[in-house]
Amino acid sequence: MIGSVRFPLRRWEVLVPALALVALVLSWGRDLPGLVVAVIALLLAGSVLAAVHHAEVVAHRVGEPFGSLVLAVAVTVIEVALIVSLMVSGGGESSTLARDTVFAAVMITCNGIVGLSLLVAALRHRVAVFNAEGAGGALATVATLATLCLVLPRFTTSAGGPVFSPAQLAFAAVASLVLYGLYVLTQTVRHRDYFLPVDKAGGVLDVAEAEEHAAAPSDRETLASLALLLLALVTVVGLAKVESPVIERGVDAAGFPHAVVGVVIALLVLLPETLAAVRAARRDRVQTSLNLALGSAMASIGLTIPTIAVASIWLSGPLELGLGALHMVLLALTIGVSTLTVVPGRATLLQAGVHLAIFASFLFLAVSP
């Protein structure tokens, strides 16, 4: 599963999200002094750790792959709400905000989280083993969604610029929802065993073995952790937004492009999934790590595009979804390398290094395009 689970809940796992929520309410929309910014940063880090713990509790109760699905969808839903709220507030960058955020999420999950997970698993267990059927199906869905929603707008001709016409945007939104729904059905009902951890021989681990026979939490503990998980994720995303003016000032002072702000915020928002995936990889549950990474990339596209398609009815100005040439090359490289990684169902330090090199290239080119 995502990690070890201990009961009952420790006091900090309840207290930190509550304090973070109070800090979020008091600091939202205000210019903050340096000391307060530092305190908020500490609460943000604590909320990330609390979110990972509560995700473990929920995942332990519902089992894989439902556990990783809960965390991926919860983070994405809150992230989408943040994107829409920022787009409604307007500004010169709002037309590309959804595209930049979704692309950053894809690069972070498919290269950063996957690379770190494979690295940790390969260092501890020599070879990272996972289910090629499940990982391959998830990757195919991510590749299709990314191409449909982020690449095709650059080549369509019904509307000027890298944008969809209203009919094309509606089609992309419906197709995204259908593909994501089909993936969830496959992952949780039709072929659940494709998304369960496997042993060195490639055999699927049963739930009891995957959980190392730990006692499952009660329904009351699970519901409490689910509520605290949502609270922690709200505070993570909200405090990341509160910190964004400080990040913007730092980016401007360093002379970096404004798009770097979105990358930094995406990194903060995806911290809970990153930590959960790495902890799963340490326990040789690489399939769980891939479920988190690829599921998050898929949810980021499959839920964001339909939401902004509806929101675009009220939003003014263009909605630019088409990637530039540089980002399309990085996306194509990511899809090609990821395919070669998942097909064998086994990965070594080499594959981990390749994914991390692509992720480092994305970060470097974001700073120096």
TrEMBL record:
Compartment(s) of residence: Membrane
Predominant location: membrane
Pfam families linked to this entry: Na_Ca_ex
Superkingdom: Bacteria
Domain Sodium/calcium exchanger membrane region intervals: 35-188, 225-366
Keyword Cytoplasm (UniProt): no
Alphabetized InterPro entries for the sequence: Alkaline_pH_Ca-Antiporter (IPR052946), NaCa_Exmemb (IPR004837)
Keywords recorded for this protein, A-Z: Membrane, Transmembrane, Transmembrane helix
Residue ranges crossing the lipid bilayer per the database entry: 12-29, 35-54, 66-90, 102-123, 135-155, 167-185, 223-242, 254-278, 290-315, 321-342, 349-367
Protein name (database record): Ionic transporter y4hA
